[in-house]
Amino acid sequence: MELHLDRQGTVPLTAQIVSRIEQLIDAGRLRPGQRLPSIRKLAAHHGISYHTAVTAYEQLVASGRISAQQGRGFFIDSHAQPRQPGMSSVASESESGPLGSFWRLFHGSPELMKLGCGWLPPAWRDTQVLARVIRRTANFSKSALVEYGDPLGYLPLRQQLCLHLQRKLSLILEPQQVLTTLGATHALDLLIRLLVAPGDHVLVDDPCNSNLVQLLKLRGAQVIGIPRRIDGPDLAVFAETLAKLPVKAFFINSMLHNPTGSSISASNAFQLLRLAHLHDLTIVEDDVYADFGNGHSNRLAMLDGLDRVIYVGSFSKTLSASLRVGYVAGPARLIARLADLKLLTMVAVPGFCERFVSIILGDGTYQRHLVTVQHKLRTHQAMALEAFRQWGWEAFCEPQGGMFVWVRHPQVANPEAFVQEGVEKGIVLVPGSAFRADGQPSPWFRINVAHFDATGASVLFKR
Q1: Distance from C-alpha of 416 to C-alpha of 81, rounded to nearest angstrom
Q2: Residue ranges, CATH 3.90.1150.10, the chain
């Protein structure tokens, strides 16, 4: 069984082995009931470690592609069914629903170019440094491996977050003004539960974070999209909406907006805050991508001083999706109410994860990591924008850093068909309609430049 592993590429060997065996099953070259090489033979034949071979087989057993028989070895499962190349069985069952494009991102094989995703490539994370900090955390915080964390959040981490936000936003905060969460999505969910009642009118950027719209709809909110311009929300539509309707809150990405990559101007930010104060409107500023930029910012929380603005941040996008730690910053009375809700719904963020983030914030690891990632993103963004120009695509704007560009082409008349064509060519996209507040069709596509390779992408995007 030859697997032809690429030892110079960025895809881990374990993932390559799993993918190659799955491809052989789907192609009919490995048949149900057929015996696989033993772990030792697989490791020796392909020059890989015993641990790598064990992990690959374990993943294949977990996915139902092979089965383990004690004393006999590993066999192609008799119930394993071929599936669409590059996609897992879970994805194929789920992709017909409204979240189908996102299922493809999570369950597609590592060889796919996941331009529609919202995270960094694994190769961009310094896993050796992360592993070293994890071992250090485990050595000094063994109780955190088995005990509940503090529902408010690990105090030293909240103190570090206060320092982080002081450097980042010039905000002077106390730890009681910060609550840790299980990533930004959890933070948004808590805020929606607390601030929004069924039937309330809530404003969002249009386009915007697709998860946000779904969370608001689950709460029974009436979601209204405010068109996003290059310099921020359309203030004329914003003012008109506030004059017509009682609005509970406005959820916004001010900097490095998801999905367009645009950032709010100083003039737009000041006028937005003026209208919010005039109409007694709460603003929730979702800032999970802004650490990818390093220039001057007009963040609403910095301009407002957390009077009317509630600030949401996270380390899941910038650092590690597995160590899910986010946070909310706001008035102490609001944070106390959110903490009660957090205690009732999930108790606490794993204490080990919080201690880990506290260490990397305190010793400078996080800032050094950001400098490296920001440089890579600027390079990839420039290459992506130039390639799309040559291929005849229009970019919504030229972002000042960050992960995304928002593009469209006059000859792509059917975005859904284009997404399907991408799947067939090994490129996973999400249609623009997934980012619309009302779910209506859109000719635009969000491109994650960190995953962009011009040679591989040209087979789809070159018109």
Answers
A1: 27
A2: 91-125+368-461
Q: pTM for this one?
A: 0.81
Q: Do residues 226 and 234 touch, judged by C-beta distance below 8 A?
A: yes
CATH 1.10.10.10 maps onto the chain at: 13-82
CA 211 – CA 164 distance, rounded (Å): 26
- The span from the CA of 391 to the CA of 405, in Å, is 15
The verdict on whether omega for the bond into residue 259 sits within 30 degrees of 0, i.e. cis, is yes
Q: What whole-number distance in Å separates Cα of residue 440 and Cα of residue 52?
A: 45
Residue 411 has pLDDT above 90, yes or no: yes
Torsion of CA 207, 211, 217, 223, to 10 degrees: -20
The amino acid that residue 354 corresponds to is E
User: What integer pLDDT is reported at residue 238 of this predicted model?
Assistant: 98
CATH among 3.30.470.20, 3.40.640.10, 3.40.470.10, 1.10.3470.10 for 129-363 = 3.40.640.10
13-82: CATH number: 1.10.10.10
- CA torsion sign, 259 to 262 to 266 to 268? negative
Pick the CATH number of 91-125+368-461 from 3.40.50.1000, 3.90.1150.10, 1.10.3470.10, 3.40.1160.10: 3.90.1150.10
- Residue 331 preceded by cis peptide, ω within 30: no
Q: What is the pLDDT of residues 28-71, one digit of tens each?
A: 888 898 999 999 999 999 999 888 888 889 888 888 889 888 77
Q: If DSSP states are collapsed to H, E and C, what string results for 132-146?
A: HHHHHHHHHCHHHHC
Q: Residue 292 to residues 9, 50, 59, 319, 366: CA-CA distances in angstroms?
A: 25, 38, 33, 11, 12
**Cα distances (Å, whole numbers) of residue 427 to 297, 417, 422:** 33, 13, 5
Q: At what angle do helices 351-362 and 365-390 cross, to 10 degrees?
A: 90
Pick the closest to residue 223 from 435, 434, 438, 439 (CA basis).
438
pLDDT tens digits along 114-140: 999 999 988 888 888 888 888 888 887
pLDDT for position 92? 47
Round to whole Å and give the CA distance between 58 and 64.
10
Q: What is the pLDDT of residue 116?
A: 95
